[in-house]
Write a structure and sequence with these properties.
The complex is a heterodimer of chains A (402) and B (695). Chain A is α+β, with helices and mostly antiparallel strands and 402 residues long. Chain A has twelve helices and 14 strands. Helices cover 32% and strands 23% of the residues of chain A. Chain B is of the alpha/beta class and 695 residues long. Chain B folds into three domains: 167 residues, Rossmann fold; 191 residues, N-(1-d-carboxylethyl)-l-norvaline Dehydrogenase, domain 2, CATH 1.10.1040.50; 279 residues, Alpha-Beta Complex (2-enoyl-CoA Hydratase, Chain A, domain 1), CATH 3.90.226.10. Helices cover 47% and strands 12% of the residues of chain B. In chain B, strand 6, helix 7 and strand 7 form a beta-alpha-beta unit. In chain B, helix 9 crosses helix 12. The longest helix of chain B has 24 residues. Classes of the chains: A alpha+beta (402), B alpha/beta (695).
Chain lengths: 402, 695
């Protein structure tokens, strides 16, 4: 590793101050009926309470979401009000990379001495996403109604192709075998369901009870609803929608939120239940690949990051990514010559769903918990984002207790 | 030879003991005399001035006192800045609702509005001859002091009281009459003065409840109310639990909704007052009272505590049993500690301290009754645990030794007192609704009189804190909604207590005064050998409207004392829930009804063995035959109401058909069974229980 490579040296992620809602699949839970910004604010407050962090510790809030929500104009200050703590902040949006980018910009805020404790709060509700009506002179209707989630997935204005087509293109480019993709997807399901049998999620996932406007029980968000274990045989039986893409080898839309803190080292030690654990930012890279080849971009971002940090895949203790398509992981394994079985050991978005904004935040949290459980080490987190973008970051977990 | 179980609260105002009222056959002070004393004789009658009259306190008290002084020809001068928002006008609608349009207009007609600039009093004020100033201007010490000096310059002999919620009399240089919200109807005033004054006695004779308290920074109500708000905020700070949820837990555990109350009063003003109270207490007593940052922020911003309607809470907070216990420590710990300070400083009669929390701060059980219930050891342990959670609070102002006096009569008789003159005993109740505390204290009071060899007794309200007797405290029934044994125990035990007035004294006289005597309190009273009632008092059994079945023998005891020809009247009382004037109940429920003086004399004559020309209505102890079908009332058209009526009638029949000895258990069984029924569980009590207990 390049000895001088440490991004945002003032910034830390305090261990154990984080949390995520479960990600119920779209339309399967009470989250389909809430203002997700308000839900996220109140949930963050609840999670901080459970972690025994007074919300008054928060100085600044970076929120991340991709789907418009009611009153989103007011962005982070409004969400902060929903957690009953009037602090400033702003909104970050980078499609599926939002959850990682928000953490990075929070670290930049801390590193720049602007604040000592910055909250990162990412959320999205794909259920009943809003429909925007845009004036559009090029359309024969003169206006264009766009359903935020599905119409965007179906059409990249820069290439004219659908999101799914990217996976098909990449599969063809890398000569990916459908059988390997099915095998990988079934393996990912096993990883997730096996982890669920353990207490790994106890420090991550927070069951949340949702109330209706009368203050009565509306529903409990206590599982990644809609996720069922798919066997290899079932996977293989699924019809192909594009090359190597089936209902089982791609993620599904879901709703949820995830939050963590970025602080100074001193504050991290003060706020963490295990102050001996130090979580640092090592580096970050982003790339944009050729049109409609999104699944290859994360691997390219990782390669760039490894080059800049001087680290290798062998240095990584935990490797975890946002994989909307199983093709992503197969392509990554080919690019980096890495055994995909060593990745995503506790689950991944392919399986537990993709609410967009908070997806990579949950990936980060799970990866950090996994690293701590392994005694520390480098943590590689990466993923793809709309526009054929790849993003990657490396964090370093030093467990002073081990 | 006069003996009292503990000091009478009347005595704190220089009004003697309750038994003296009966013995002397007259009230200890007359309003006419006190009006003359405070405002001058009618030929030279001066005015009552309220400054800051358009504020929440000023306007409320202008209405409350103005309505009471109307018939005494005392001009009411409402003084305020010319630009002040019209707070008095806003009161008119409520006044009309309470007194009717004509009386409301009369009251308003007697209010003379004047303006001043804070420096010079209006010239015309002189012609009004101000005799008493109630100052209700903002809580700024220097402004208040200047105000008094302006008044004293023009009117050197004017009597002044401040409504301040925080500044001691020693700082202000005037006496204090600190009222409680809501100001139009809450009768409590915390009074600070060198010695009980004519003003205080006048307030009392006008039907208000002045409570003498010590001269310290912030008064009892503010220590309790601001204290529970402060405790809740400390928990909020530590746990992040939203205030709306804290309100629910605090309401379930203690009674108040501190944050909702702030918003209801008006967050901007209430936040300031709470902060100001805590700030001054912290300056004087230390960190136990230091306002949290959250309160300071709300004080500065004037922001409401509850979210706006379109942000009604979405995410629920539930606590495990141990988390709820920790929360209880966060709230109860500081409350006990603050109470220990007030007791150490001897801020007031213990019944005053206890009643203030109940009547003015929504405590389901007064703070001292609450501490008594958990016991000194647990109370001390809660505080010690609280100090571990919040070490800064442990730095001082903690007097555990005062809790060790819990066995003394002042602690043990918070609601019920007993007095005797060697021959006649008197038991007085100062709580308007009957609960297990009152029950236990009644038994102790009876035990004490019997130990003093007193076998003639008067049972009455206390002429002070309880201005009426409204029946059972229905919050005591919450467990009975799901547990028949609990309902049975309440009914049986309370009935047994009531029977002691019939069984254990040679003569017992119940005296009913005040606006009304209803339900359980009436059942208690009717167990006395004689029942005497002020003619202005209404008596009633509203149980059917809740619905519950009367549990203290109301379904057979009055029938056993009445002629069968009067039973229809008793059924009417039980089955309509409507109260009747006590005069209309003479002969079948009440033995005598008349003016207060006549009642007092009659009660004393009966109790002391004098001539009274009343014959005791004996209770029939044998089984009584009754065909309830003869006593039904026309169908109300409401099936639930009819079902409740039917259940009451069945209880009457079965309890009357039993012998007197057996009837107590028959009635208790009916009462308990009914409390567990859907009719009760989905009725008023069930709804209340749901509201209070559901978090």
């Amino acid at each position: 590793m390049n000895s001088d490579t440490q991004m945002f040296s003032r910034a830390r992620i305090p261990y154990g101050t984080w949390g995520s809602s479960y990600f119920p699949a779209w339309q399967t839970s009470a989250l389909a009926e809430v203002n997700i910004g308000q839900f996220a604010g109140e949930s963050m407050n609840r999670i901080l309470g459970l972690r025994r962090i007074p919300k008054s510790e928060l100085e600044y809030l970076v929120i991340g979401s991709t789907i418009p929500w009611h009153w989103k104009f007011w962005t982070a200050p409004l969400v902060a009000s929903c957690l009953d703590h009037r602090i400033p902040g702003y909104h970050v949006e980078q499609a599926c990379a939002t959850g990682l980018q928000a953490v990075v910009v929070a670290a930049a805020e801390v590193h720049g001495n602007s604040h000592d404790v910055v909250g990162v709060l990412t959320f999205d509700r794909t259920s009943d996403s809003p429909v925007g009506v845009f004036p559009e002179r090029r359309a024969h209707e003169r206006t264009h109604a766009l359903a935020d989630v599905w119409d965007n997935f179906g059409f990249d204005p820069a290439t004219g192709g659908a999101m799914m087509a990217c996976a098909g293109n990449a599969a063809r480019k890398y000569k990916v075998d459908r059988r390997e993709v099915d095998e990988l997807a079934a393996y990912r399901y096993d990883q997730y369901f096996q982890t669920k049998e353990t207490n790994f999620f106890d420090n991550i996932m927070v069951p949340l009870e949702v109330l209706n406007v009368q203050g009565k029980f509306l529903g409990k968000i206590d599982d990644d609803y809609g996720v069922k274990n798919i066997s290899l045989n079932e996977m293989r039986a699924m019809p192909e929608l594009d090359s190597c893409v089936t209902g089982g080898t791609q993620t599904h839309a879901s709703d949820g939120m995830a939050t963590l803190l970025v602080t100074t080292k001193e504050k991290a030690q003060e706020l963490s239940p295990r102050p001996e654990i130090d979580i640092q930012f090592v580096g970050k890279a982003e790339v944009r690949t050729y049109p409609s080849l999104m699944p290859e971009s994360p691997g390219m971002a990782v390669q760039k990051l490894l080059q800049s940090t001087g680290l290798t895949m062998a240095d990584m203790t935990v490797v975890k990514n946002h994989n909307p398509f199983a093709v992503n992981d197969v392509v990554f394994a080919k690019e980096l010559k890495y055994d995909w079985k060593k990745m995503n050991k506790t689950g991944c978005p392919l399986v537990w769903g993709h609410p967009q904004g908070p997806t990579l935040t949950r990936v980060i949290i799970e990866a950090l918990e996994e690293a701590v459980s392994l005694g520390g080490g480098y943590v590689l987190i990466f993923g793809c984002a709309a526009g054929d973008v790849g993003i990657a970051t490396i964090l370093k977990v030093t467990d002073g207790g081990k | 030879m006069m003996k009292t179980l503990r000091q009478s609260t009347l005595d704190t105002m220089g009004l003697g003991n309750v038994i003296d009222i009966f013995k002397n056959g007259t009230m200890p002070a007359r309003t006419e005399d006190l009006v003359d004393e405070v405002f001058g004789k009618s030929s030279d009658r001066g005015a009552f001035v309220i400054s800051g009259a358009n504020g929440i306190v000023g306007a409320g008290k202008t209405m409350q006192i103005g309505s009471r002084l109307l018939s005494y020809d005392v001009p009411i001068v409402a003084l305020d800045f010319p630009g002040a928002q019209d707070g008095i006008g806003m009161q008119y609608k409520g006044l009309e609702g309470s007194f009717g349009p004509r009386n409301a207009m009369d009251i308003m007609s007697n209010v003379i509005r004047m303006h001043y600039d804070g420096n010079r009093l209006p010239a015309k004020l002189k012609s009004m001859n101000p005799r008493f100033l109630l100052e209700a201007i903002p809580e700024i010490l220097e402004v208040k002091k200047k105000h008094y000096s302006v008044f004293r310059e023009s009117f050197p002999s004017v009597e002044i009281r401040s409504v301040t919620s925080g500044f001691p009399s020693s700082e202000l240089g005037v006496g204090i009459a600190h009222p409680a919200f809501p100001h139009q109807i809450n009768k409590i005033w915390e009074i600070v003065e060198d010695k009980p004054s004519a003003v205080t006695r006048l307030f009392w004779s006008l039907g208000m409840i002045p409570l003498e308290v010590g001269d310290y920074w912030s008064f009892i109500l503010d220590v309790l109310f601001c204290g529970i708000t402060h405790a809740s905020l400390q928990y909020h700070h530590a746990s992040n639990m939203p205030v709306w949820k804290i309100d629910k837990y605090v309401r379930r555990q203690f009674g108040p909704n501190p944050f909702r109350a702030h918003d209801a009063i008006g967050a901007k003003g209430a936040n300031f007052l709470t902060w100001s109270c805590l700030h001054h207490l912290a300056e004087h007593y230390g960190e136990l009272f230091r306002p949290t940052d959250e309160l300071t922020y709300r004080k500065d911003s004037g922001q409401n505590w509850y979210p706006l309607n379109h942000f009604r809470p979405l995410v629920n907070w539930t606590l495990t049993e141990s988390e709820e216990d920790e929360m209880k420590t966060w709230i109860l710990g500081p409350l006990v500690q603050m109470t220990s300070l007030m007791l150490h400083e001897q801020r007031g009669h213990l019944s005053h301290i206890n009643a203030i929390g109940e009547i003015c701060a929504q405590f389901r059980s007064g703070i001292l009754a609450m501490i008594r219930k958990i016991g000194a050891d647990e109370a001390i342990s809660r505080v010690e645990t609280y100090h571990k959670l919040c070490p800064s609070a442990g730095g001082g102002c903690w007097y555990p030794e005062v809790l060790k006096k819990i066995e003394e009569p002042e602690w043990q008789q918070l609601y019920v007192n007993a007095e005797h003159d060697g021959t006649v005993g008197l038991i007085s109740i100062n709580r308007e609704s009957y609960n297990s505390d009152v029950d236990a204290e009644l038994n102790r009071a009876i035990d004490w009189l019997k130990a003093e060899s007193i076998d003639r007794v008067i049972l009455s309200g206390d002429f002070h804190i309880a201005t009426q007797l409204v029946g059972a405290d229905t919050s005591e029934f919450y467990p009975a909604l799901h547990d028949e044994k609990s309902g049975y125990a309440i009914s049986l035990n309370w009935s047994r207590t009531a029977r002691r007035f019939n069984d254990e004294f040679n003569v017992s006289v119940g005296f009913i005064n005040g606006k009304r005597c209803l339900g359980g309190m009436l059942e208690l009273m009717m167990h006395c050998h004689y029942l005497v009632a002020n003619e202005a008092t209404q008596v009633g059994m509203p149980e059917v409207t809740l619905p519950v079945i009367p549990g203290m023998e109301g379904c057979h005891w009055p029938f056993r004392k009445a002629e069968s020809s009067d039973w229809p009247k008793l059924f009417e009382l039980l089955l309509t829930g409507k109260a009747v004037g006590s005069k209309d109940a003479v002969g079948w429920l009440v033995d005598y009804s008349g003016s207060i003086e006549d009642c007092l004399k009659t009660v004393w004559d009966i109790a002391s063995g004098g001539d009274h020309n009343l014959s005791q209505r004996k209770i029939k102890s044998e089984s009584m035959k009754m065909a309830i079908s003869e006593f039904g009332l026309p169908d109300s058209g409401n099936s639930a109401f009819e079902a409740s009526r039917k259940a009451i009638m069945q209880c009457v029949q079965n309890a009357c058909q039993a012998s007197l000895d057996e009837a107590v258990t028959v009635q208790a069984k009916h009462s308990a069974e009914f409390m567990k029924s859907d009719l009760c569980r989905f009725g008023v009590i069930g709804a209340d229980a749901k509201k209070v207990l559901t978090v």
